[in-house]
Amino acid sequence: MGAILVGCPACGAGAGTGGAGSPGAEGLFVRLGGMDGVRALVDDLTSRLAADERIHHFFVKTDFRRFKGRLVVQLCALTGGPCRYGGSMAGVHRRLRIKAQHFDAFLEDVAASLTVVRLSARDRVELLKLLRAMKPEVVK
Ligand code: HEM
How much is the pTM? Predict the structure, then answer.
């Protein structure tokens, strides 16, 4: 098994072949294209969020460099890759007062971004399901 990384500055293109998480979820990380795939997804998603009039006001003060780095680590961990996200979703989002319609817009942007990675329709649904499960922590 590979080392569990807290943050992924050292994650190379080949990382993720021996990560944490359940075997099924680990497969999702690999099928996403490992760290390169996660980074491509996050790059595309960040552009969409910044341009999305329904929600871009939430991000006016956001340091996107940091945001992207954290999101890469989180999605790597969520899909079974060799990262560990040490943050608190509820803690980060609480003060933002995000409503259900904002959450839905965010997920629509994720769904649109999933076209940049080579994932099967089934895997896309699986990833969206993992994210949708975070709704209670994000929406207040
Ligand atoms: C499943 C859905 C979501 C995931 C996985 C997610 C993930 C993240 C992550 C990993 C961070 C960085 C936190 C850190 O610093 O450790 C973050 C920050 C942030 N998220 Fe989300 N998020 C989600 C939904 C949303 C939604 C729906 C909005 C608003 C519409 C939003 C707005 C923000 C903002 C503005 C920040 C930056 C906060 C700051 O500047 O300190 N997020 N999110």
Answer: 0.87
